[in-house]
């Protein structure tokens, strides 16, 4: 059973509805956290196998030292893999060194990895380069015939390959409306319309939007515009476990 939980779904600005975008993905005995911001307690209780950091921006990485610290306080002894693009070595090691986490008594092994392919439980996870920063990545997660593709932050186009065709769920950033697409592209982002076009292009079963602006009204406007292009578009249900294959987002 492949399932995902949004711990947050906003972009850089949090609001009362949600914190920054972060995902827990699990299947069988495997579980991973994608980006470290909100919901650290959920990741600790899930006893995650790995943390994937999609890129270096603050809303995606600021929870890293707190996550490691809380896992240590919870009594973890087995290694934690931390996966990221090699261009983030300085940032990740800087966080760990700043809080002297490796020097904690009984600290579990922290295994830093740059490889593009991983196996955790029933999940095969492939990372791919996105068009956001020099170090940004997205993820494709496959398990028992189910497929989830997560773009993280990216400009539209050129990200999704043949291997990602026909995912059960495409989770795509949607940082604004089409009227602002020129500005969004300059900043390395996509609109909800861009996300919907990508979902159509790769034949996704459903599209879930994320990296959203604050306020309910802004989210609903983006959803409306995306749904006009791709009907099976949803906003995230923060904190709700979603099983891949259910007929909703």
Q: What structural class results from the helix and strand content?
A: alpha/beta
* CATH architectural type: 4-Layer Sandwich
Q: Total helix count?
A: 7
Global morphology: globular
Strand residue content: 25-35%
Describe the structure.
The protein has 249 residues and is of the alpha/beta class. It has one domain: 4-Layer Sandwich (Metallo-beta-lactamase, Chain A). Helices cover 25% and strands 27% of the residues. The protein has 7 helices and 14 strands. It has helices at 40-46, 58-61, 64-73, 89-98, 181-186, 192-202, 216-229; strands at residues 2-8, 22-27, 30-34, 50-52, 80-83, 110-113, 117-120, 123-129, 137-143, 146-150, 169-173, 206-210, 233-234, 242-243. The strands form 2 sheets. Strands 6-5-4-3-2-1-14 form a 7-stranded mixed beta sheet, covered by helices on one side. A hairpin with a 7-residue loop joins strand 8 (123-129) and strand 9. Helix 1 crosses helix 3 (64-73) and helix 6 (192-202) runs parallel beside helix 7. The chain starts with a strand and ends in a 6-residue tail after the last strand.
């Amino acid at each position: 059973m492949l399932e995902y939980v949004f711990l947050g779904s906003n972009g850089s600005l949090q609001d009362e509805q949600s914190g920054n975008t972060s995902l827990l993905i699990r299947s069988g005995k495997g579980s991973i956290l994608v980006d470290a911001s909100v919901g650290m307690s959920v990741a600790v209780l899930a006893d995650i196998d790995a943390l994937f950091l999609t890129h270096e921006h603050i809303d995606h990485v600021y929870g890293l030292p707190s996550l490691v610290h809380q896992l240590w306080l919870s009594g973890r002894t087995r290694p934690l893999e931390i996966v990221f693009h090699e261009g983030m070595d300085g940032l990740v090691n800087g966080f760990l060194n700043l809080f002297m986490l490796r020097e904690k008594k009984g600290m579990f092994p922290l295994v830093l990895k740059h490889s593009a392919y991983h196996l955790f439980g029933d999940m095969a996870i492939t990372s791919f380069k996105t068009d956001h920063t020099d170090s940004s990545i997205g993820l494709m997660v496959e398990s028992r015939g189910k497929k989830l593709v997560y773009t993280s932050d990216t400009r539209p186009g050129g990200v999704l390959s043949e291997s990602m065709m026909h995912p059960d769920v495409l989770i795509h950033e949607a940082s604004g409306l089409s009227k602002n697409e020129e500005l969004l592209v300059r900043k390395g982002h996509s609109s909800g319309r861009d996300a919907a076009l990508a979902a159509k292009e790769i034949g996704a079963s459903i599209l879930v939007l994320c990296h959203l602006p604050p306020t309910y009204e802004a989210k609903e406007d983006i959803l409306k515009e995306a749904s006009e292009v791709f009907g099976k578009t949803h906003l995230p249900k923060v904190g709700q476990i979603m099983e891949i294959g259910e007929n909703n987002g």
